Amino acid sequence: MIFLIFLIYGVLARHVPYANKSFNSEELIQYREEVRELIYFGIDNYLDIAYPADELHPLSCAPSWRNFDDPMDFGFNDVMGNYSITLIDSLTTVAVIGDRDRFKQLVDLMEERFSHGFDTGSIVQVFEVTIRVLGSLMSAHLYASDPSKKVYLGDEYNGFLLDLAVDIADRLLPAYLTDSGIPVPRVNLSNSKTPLERGFNPNNNIVAMSSPYFEFRMLSYLTKDSKYEEVTRFSFEKAWSLRTMLNLVPSTFDPDTGVMVDSMTGIGASVDSFYEYTLKGAILFDDDDLLKIWQEAYSAISINAKEDWFFSVISAYGGYPSTSWLDSLSAFFSGLQVLAGDVSEAIAHNIMFMKLWGTFGALPERWDTNTAEEKQYINFNTGIPLYPLRPEFVESSWYLYRATKDPLYLNIGHRVLQDYKNKMKTECGFATIKSVETGEQEDRMESFVLSETLKYLFLLFDEDNEVHRSRDNLIFSTEAHPLWLTPEMKRDYQQNKYFNDTTYINHLDELKSGHKEWILKQKKEMNKQINKHLQKIFKYEAPIDSETRKDALKKLYAKRKLLEKNTELSFIEVYPVHEEFNNTCPVTHYDSSRNKGFFSPLMSTYGKMFDVNRRYDLEKPKYMENAPSIETEPVFYDRWCSPNSQSQFPSQAVTFDMVLDSTGNYDVIKYFNGSISGESFGGRRKLRIQRLKRGDVDWYGDYVSDRDFEGLDYTDIRPETPVSINRQDIYKVVKLDSIPIPKGQQVYIKSDLLSNDFNVSAVIADPFLNGKKSAFKRFGYNKDGHVISDNTLFVNFKII
Ligand SMILES: *[C@@H]1O[C@H](CO)[C@@H](O)[C@H](O)[C@H]1NC(C)=O
Ligand SMILES: *[C@@H]1O[C@H](CO)[C@@H](O)[C@H](O)[C@H]1NC(C)=O
Ligand SMILES: *[C@@H]1O[C@H](CO)[C@@H](O)[C@H](O)[C@H]1NC(C)=O
Ligand SMILES: *[C@@H]1O[C@H](CO)[C@@H](O)[C@H](O)[C@H]1NC(C)=O
Ligand SMILES: *[C@@H]1O[C@H](CO)[C@@H](O)[C@H](O)[C@H]1NC(C)=O
Questions:
Q1: What are phi and psi of 768, to 5 degrees?
Q2: Which atom of ligand 3 is nearest to the CA of 188?
Q3: 235 with 204: CB under 8 angstroms?
Q4: Which of the ligands is closest to the CA of residue 501?
């Protein structure tokens, strides 16, 4: 009887339709299966139509080959080595979705295709081949030979994938045989010992100099041959040793001489995987040295580049913004922040990209963060509207969903899935979006759509995937190939490793003997550049005259005021807003029967959910006009947003960064009873400050009232040349080194550090100065210790 009831219940349950956006297991399974179909659709069409070519043309439904006529066509040729890259890159996707038959079939195809290894005569890019080919081969090898995995092949697998990994690695490794030990960017796979002409190998970026270390070290663990690890580690360490005094890594170097070519840095293109693999390497290899580098590097980039919603592209020397673009690649960073345990920052960073995806139905390759208003005054590089099917936003949303279980991330996944089904899917594949402004497609389907984008999307919906239950330290490579090491594998490597390739032994010996001198020389050169640079910024080079600037600020300010007053802002397409943004979720027809009491924590309690919309002109392109934003889509919003939620009032004040630079190492800044204590002041502290008037709303969402001005002493008691203090405005410090200062806390600085003896200077980063800085160094203080600068009192910044 009981059995019967279960049986009937089981039959019924299968047919009970889920309510849309309830995200119960039935619904998730449906989405997962839809992703699975897309994956098979892509792989099958590639194999039927394009194989053995590298890629599939998704619009013309034809094979896409490397450009044999023009070896310098790097956009294609760097990744397309005439080795069926889409097949190679898709292997682990089939493994992750757990389809053993299909995995076996693809592995068999690999064995047939690569009986002669990678002797293709192609000139390819070392970094791209490392992540797409070497990473995939090792990951597929692990899957095929690990009995704990669903797709384990047992006796049916002879280990040839690892041999292929060795084959490709040996063709790539000679890139490191340079005078500096920094690899050249490209090699000829058939003749990699002969250096290429200069045209193929101009400069290399910090990612290519540092990050192949991750895959190559893994190969050493799998083969016991430590030459891969040793050679690439030398370059990794050299790359890190080339950091500036701010602990920032410039993006580009000449591989022959090690001389810096471009000082730009950030977390996007050309720098991204340096951060990624420093932390992931620390985890996979249990390496404390790498962890320490990660901590220093993450701290430095956060202090210097972190905005509320993203990281700017900055100068590695000055730490000021050097362009205003936001790379879509940098969307990966929130995933990394989750791995680092910095979930609250990861959430904020991901929201920026959610808003962009909601606006464009994809991510522009580069988005200009300046509003139209600001663009009148700031002439930085503008955006690139291309979306080449990149995975980074889905990847981060998957990490965040695993960390928070907030249904908002499932809704992101659902939207991305709809867009892939409706916008990117073509007759035979998935098409790059040529312009997110028009939705126009382009006839290219890079291998990472199958390797990464759809894999992460699948995992987002596949609650029970073995990846989510793995007890190994499983880490996804930057191309989304899972790698892991068991304690036995680590022990085996430590006990049995060898290094007997004389070419590389001799090369490393030579490099190491000259290394100290080399670094000294580089540092000297760098110091020269830094001095030049500092001289320049402290002379206050305003690119536009001060009247224009004042005018611009006034306009911007007026516009923000207007925005706050406007009750029908574009971001609430669905509901009118009451009481100036008082609700995160201004629900008008909330249906309590549909919600069982669990709300999306982010939608319901995150006070700054709509700040991105307020700060930036997120205007939907014409063809997207009727698409709701991800977070305000009614069927999701009604269900998951608590009607009692509150959104904080948006800040209205003009915000500046004040940078304190010191050449010494002093105990300088603390704020009491908070989590930060600045033990040392080795170079730089950055304060984000707000200029506030009565009636403004500050960064915490509080009104500035007479009370904030009460009891302030307006006398500058500095010994020489005291100034008269402006009584209309106050300064409030809201962040220290990019970390928010809790409401009501004070920031303290030692008084002697404000004297010139210690060579402390402060500058403000002002959006209207083209990233240059205006001098802001005269400090005073009143009898209560409140710091005075710019003729204005800091209400929460004191000397002790
Ligand atoms: C969910 O929404 C889709 C699209 O609007 C609709 O076709 C489907 O019937 C809905 N499913 C349920 C169970 O309500
Ligand atoms: C490219 O690869 C295909 C398939 O393996 C092969 O037939 C062709 O000869 C290769 N082309 C060149 C120029 O190497
Ligand atoms: C790569 O090297 C091989 C062997 O020397 C040569 O035949 C081939 O032409 C080279 N490829 C290119 C694109 O130069
Ligand atoms: C290097 O050592 C390995 C492992 O002991 C051995 O298999 C290989 O033949 C050696 N190679 C050379 C060139 O000595
Ligand atoms: C800081 O915390 C301590 C102990 O919790 C407390 O005694 C003290 O009053 C606090 N100081 C400030 C400035 O809030």
A1: -95, 10
A2: 1
A3: no
A4: 4
| Measured distance CA(484)–CA(482) in Å, rounded | 7
- Nearest CA, atom 1, ligand 2: 82
Query: Under a CB-based contact definition with an 8 Å cutoff, are residues 376 and 641 in contact?
Result: no
Rounded CA-CA distance 127/280 in Å is 17
DSSP notation for 87-130: HHHHHHHHHHTT-HHHHHHHHHHHHHHTTTTT----EEEHHHHI
Nearest to 285 by CA among 523, 101, 487: 487
Q: 503: Cβ below 6 Å to ligand 4? A: no
Measure 742 CA to ligand 5 centroid, in angstroms: 14
Place of tokens 């002041």: 681
82 lines ligand 2 (CB under 6 A): yes
What mean pLDDT value characterizes the chain?
83
Give the Å distance between the CA of 18 and the centre of ligand 1. 9
Decide whether any atom of ligand 3 lies within 6 Å of the 73 Cβ: no
Any residues with CB less than 8 A from the CB of 444 and at least 6 apart, and which? 55, 57, 58, 64, 388, 431, 432
Model confidence band, residue 56 (pLDDT cutoffs 50, 70, 90)? very high
Give me the mean pLDDT over the 120-129 stretch. 96
**Average confidence (pLDDT) over 652-660:** 73
Residue 763 has pLDDT above 50, yes or no: no
Assess whether pLDDT exceeds 60 at residue 531: no
3-state secondary structure of 166: helix
Mean pLDDT of 99-128: 97
Secondary structure element (H or E) that encloses residue 86, with its range: helix 85-96
Q: Which of 82-91, 483-492, 692-701 has the lowest mean pLDDT?
A: 692-701
Give buried/exposed letters for 501-511 (b at 16+ CB in 10 A, else e): beebeebbeeb
Name the H helices within 361-387: 372-375
Q: Are 436 and 424 in contact (CB under 8 A)?
A: no
Q: How far is CA 207 from the centre of its chain?
A: 13
Q: pLDDT band for position 765 (50/70/90)?
A: very low
Q: Which atom from ligand 5 is nearest to the alpha carbon of 746?
A: 13
**Residue nearest atom 4 in ligand 1 by C-alpha distance:** 20
Say yes or no: CB of residue 607 within 6 Å of ligand 3: no
Residue nearest atom 5 of ligand 2, based on CA coordinates: 52
The span from the CA of 753 to the CA of 554, in Å, is 34
- For β-strands 264-265 and 260-262, DSSP reports them as unpaired
Give 610-652 as a DSSP string. Answer: THHHHHS-----GGGTTPPPTTT-HHHHHHHS-TT---PPPP-
Question: Quick check: CB of 122 below 6 Å from ligand 2?
Answer: no
- Condensed to tens digits (0 to 9), the pLDDT of residues 65-75 reads 999 999 999 99
Query: Cα separations (Å) of 282 from 248, 276, 286, 291, 390?
Result: 19, 10, 5, 5, 25
* Closest to 409 (Cα-Cα) out of 349, 337, 347: 347
Query: Which tokens hold the place of 42?
Result: 């892509």
For ligand 1, is residue 575 a contact (CB within 6 Å)?
A: no
How much is the CA Rg of the chain, to the nearest whole Å? 28
- Residue 672 beta carbon below 6 angstroms from any ligand 5 atom: yes
Give me the residue label for tokens 């929460």. Answer: 796
Q: Catalytic: 631?
A: no
Among 34, 307, 365, 395, the active-site one is 365
Find the range with the poorest average confidence among 36-50, 97-111, 373-387, 419-433.
373-387
Checking if the pLDDT of 58 tops 70, the result is yes
Tell me the CA–centroid distance for residue 17 and ligand 1, in Å.
Answer: 9
- pLDDT tens sequence across 559-615: 444 443 332 222 222 222 323 334 455 444 445 555 556 888 898 888 888 888 877
Query: Atom 7, ligand 2: which residue's CA is nearest?
Result: 52
